[in-house]
Write a structure and sequence with these properties.
heterodimer, A: 311 residues, alpha/beta, Rossmann fold, 5-stranded mixed sheet, B: 278 residues, 5-stranded parallel sheet, two-stranded antiparallel ribbon, transketolase activity (chain A), Transketolase-like_Pyr-bd (chain A)
Amino acid sequence: MSELKPIATRESYGNALVKLGEAHKDLIVLDADLAAATKTGVFKKAFPDRHIDCGIAEANMAGIAAGLSTCGFVPFMSTFAMFAAGRAFEQVRNSIGYPHLNVKIGATHAGISVGEDGATHQCNEDIALMRAIPGMVVINPCDDVEARAAVEAAYAWEGPVYLRFGRLAVPVINDEASYKFEIGKGITLREGSDCTIIATGLCVSGALEAAGILEKEGISAQVINIHTIKPLDEELVIKAAQKTGRVFTVEEHSIIGGLGSAVAEVLGEKCPTPLKRIGINDVFGESGPAKELIHKYGLDGEGIAAVVMKG
Amino acid sequence: MDNLKLMQTAVEVRKGIVTAVHSAKSGHPGGSLSAADIFTFLYFEEMNIDPANPKNPDRDRFVLSKGHTAPGLYSTLANRGYFPVEDLKTLRHTGSYLQGHPDMKHIPGVDMSSGSLGQGLSCAVGMALGGKLQGKSYRVYALCGDGEIQEGQIWEAAMFAGSRKLDNLCVIVDNNKLQIDGPVEEVCSPYPIDKKFESFNFHVININGNDFDEIRKAMNEAKTVNGMPTAIIAHTVKGRGVSFMEDQVGWHGTAPNDEQYAIAMEELRKAGEALCQN
């Protein structure tokens, strides 16, 4: 699929909302003065009456989303991951999570691939925060095909869903015609026998690259795409751990509380297996072009392969 | 409902508050009692609601943004017939549906889960916006504390409501003048409350929130306002109706012991009797 142009999953989000909005009149989109950046601007253009700009007030936006959902709307509240999961954490927890309201949180600009804006805007903690809320579904799609499918699945799901999108254009690695998305089901992208690389979001393409590098070194790596971090596909994780005996997790997120932690929890309790978490190592990010940062923080194919070879 | 009947009902609501908090051995009687007349007026006179059909999509909505005064809301809902008055004694007990703060998932008649201060008003604004978008005529009422409005989110919500001209929204501030740490004016003054809401493009009415004539007049006025939300600044007495709790900051979040409970219930019984003789 490499002939397709790379596209940021935030763009997929906006496009998917337009498509869903045509079919579903109860879908409503909220923004906090970032419609151009969250890519919901296309929805605003198509359905101006169902796009509500709340201004720079994310806490209030979360409450408005909660109130609208009690009236039968399906709100998609959109802002950067830092503000959706960070600034408005307690509003998401208490006004949306506790009453288990049917609100979808479209969080763009997640992780260090925000790039030049630097550490204040690079949210590497959102998966940890959102996954700790009872009943919250947490989805981190890896490409355009998966992101659009995830938005549709989130709409169809009854209850709160956190959708994590990126700013950076990423390669399209899934084949639209054959791709199937199911909340809570991981996808094996490549079979292998020596180790398993479990990746999420934009790190999935890096994990595939790493598997290619490792193959040349005589290491057979299985690659799993975990798009839904909660509920986690425990069965798939355990099966892969049993088969290969060694697991690596890769995410554009802190190694504390994200995919790596989720996998560690299930393996620790149900199938103790040597595990190495690859991610942001408990540090803040920094300014720089996204691709350079991904390389610097060891999240590209080369960086992942190096960790796997080290063992 | 005439004022006498409302006053009698408010006495029953206050009995329920004191009973629930006494049984729970914890909770917030002061702000429940100060707002008891407002709760009573809303549920027995003002709002278009039906205890037999609490989820009716066309009903008026109420959000208790100052959610810690749940005993006031619960006692009102119970007396209105949403659930048995007897259940008030299970407040805050393990396994009871009557949670310490309003829980819309388990308590009939509760329109929004709330309690973390500052959040409820945003949810009420969302409901008011939803009504406008759907072309429905229901109204949304939110009750905030005068301490609660120290939360910045209140003003985010007020800015949005004023900006969107949500005239189906009525915010009531229970201005009982005390918060846990002391007088609101000393802790971090929110005054002038009326001017603040005015500057956020609200129609503002100052009233005595323990007087049914004034509550009725303000609610009626709010319904005639076009193009802006209304804020009713209700000047009330914290602990109203139980002499030793009135204007005492210590009764913000303290439950009466058995002796105090007996005295409070006797006072309320006498107040109810006096109203019957009128």
